[in-house]
Write the structure tokens for this entry.
Amino acid sequence: MHAKKLDKIATAVLYTIAGIIVAILASLILYILVRGLPHVSWSFLTGKSSSYQAGGGIGIQLYNSFFLLVITLLISVPLSMGAGIYLAEYAKKGRVTNFVRTCIEILSSLPSVVVGLFGYLIFVVQFEYGFSIISGALALTVFNLPQMTRNVEDSLKHVHHTQREAGLALGLSRWETVLHVVIPEALPGIVTGVVLASGRIFGEAAALIYTAGQSAPALDWSNWNVLSVTSPISIFRQAETLAVHIWKVNSEGTIPDGTLVSAGSAAVLLIFILIFNFGARKLGSYLHKKLTAA
């Protein structure tokens, strides 16, 4: 009886702690949404930001956030896939491999401000890319690559060894087995990790302040020259993202309705991050069921 009572007490304590944490997170999310959603409108989502007058929008900042996300994923996904496949399938146990994994663990715990300063010194100053989308994308690649690599490696390792043996028994080479057997089986976990990383990239601010810049110049949608600073597809122009815009409005903004703009921007940013997180789980479950059925 004594053991059962202790078990019930411990279970109740754990449920209470979990409930408190969930309540705090839910109240924080509701506070941001209730405070910001009344200010969100179509004109707010598509309009240009204002420096001195009330009524500005976040259209350019929202576009910059998505464009920067796409460029970052184009760089980081192939690199993380290659590194994850090597560590999971080809790397032999030893000091070198252990050292690489230790470096990945250390890099994954670096503060984003440190990564931003590193990106400023290397990509902005040394490589002379200046404050630009490519500088921000490369800095975010450094920021997210360790986590994405570890996610790919873990997803591949969770594939049962009999799957590999079956591929080899059919006469496939090791690379063909990885490409046609292991990766498709690990795809749900890999995709989930990429989508979760997308949410992290979308909401990042500190690393971009020093690399992508703090201004959002007007875009000329008729100009598709990738080298032009007014082209919407140029990777060499400054690009203030939504997260950086929130920081800037709160820290040094001079617009009369800065509080409303900040609240609306925070609500929009939170909604997209929630979409990324819930979408990752739904997409992972869907792909798992699809591949299992096939």
Remarks:
- The mean pLDDT is 87.
- The chain has one domain: 40-292.
